[in-house]
Amino acid sequence: MKRVCLLFALSLFGVTVFSQGTVSIGHAQLNMGVGLSEYGTPVYVGIDYVAFRNVSIGGELSFRSYNEYWGRYYYRRDISGISANANYHFNNILLIPSPFDFYAGLNLGFYNWSSPDAGYYGNHSSGLGLGAQIGGRYYFTKKFGINLEFGGGNAFSGGKVGLTFKF
Fold first, then answer.
1. Which of 15, 68, 90, 137 has a CA-to-CA distance to 112 between 20 and 30 Å?
2. Domain of residue 50, residue span
3. For position 146, what pLDDT does the model report?
4. DSSP reduced 3-state for 22
5. What would the mean pLDDT of 48-56 be, rounded to a whole number?
6. For residue 110, is it within any domain?
């Protein structure tokens, strides 16, 4: 019984020390997809860079367009956004297998509402806004996966789904 316990402990230590996680220092991930919002369907593209062990920092650009009813008319509204984010990846401390990547973090963003329709003067910006997100990825290969993220206080206050490419 002692041998079995010792073998199990050494195996667990070996898996923890030598496992190749989904995020490695110096690597980056390109993310793109669509989001959920009450104001149109946003599209986004972003990049995350793994700067420290289990910590990534990144940025994101987003855009969406929708029609707003004002008075007797519909006016087209466009929302453009730029945001920065930082995420902590929980794979190592939770012993999550390599194809998965579970993370949570904060974001800081700025959004601009505009209307290309003549005669509608509803342009404004959000100012800087702080938000939070929690999400996960599943990698089909070492370089390609899907992502799902939920958050609040940002352009995707419901969530987003998309593709991830590691490089």
1. 137
2. 22-166
3. 98
4. coil
5. 95
6. yes
